[in-house]
């Protein structure tokens, strides 16, 4: 999805979600509600990170594989700066997004591109809703 100019949520207290989240939720209809929520939380954090630390995401991709159940979330942006998982604790009101990604995803990483980077996260389940991690 071309994500330029789109965010996932209008604000921390908002229940209105943007086209990015609605688009993703529509693609993930075959997942259970719990699995879908995990994927949407990771998507929210990757897109929010791109908005907070770059000019915003340029493209967002979801790849779903039914057997074994696997979803890959990718967000491109125009920055070459890599996200950082901050140490737990602290009192800052922000800075825990990549902790959430690190906790929910089986693995995540960054690919440098000519015009920026792609931050990706892979979430998988081994059956009966059990996380593979």
TrEMBL record:
Domain of life of the organism encoding this protein: Bacteria
InterPro entries in the record: Anti-sigma-factor_SerPK, HATPase_C_sf, HATPase_dom
Domain Histidine kinase/HSP90-like ATPase: 17-122
rRNA-binding in keyword set: no
UniProtKB keywords: ATP-binding, Kinase, Nucleotide-binding, Serine/threonine-protein kinase, Transferase
Molecular functions per Gene Ontology: ATP binding
Range of residues in the leader sequence: none
Family matches, as PANTHER family: ANTI-SIGMA-F FACTOR RSBW, ANTI-SIGMA-F FACTOR RSBW-RELATED
Protein name per Swiss-Prot or TrEMBL: ATP-binding protein
The species this protein was found in: Amycolatopsis albidoflavus
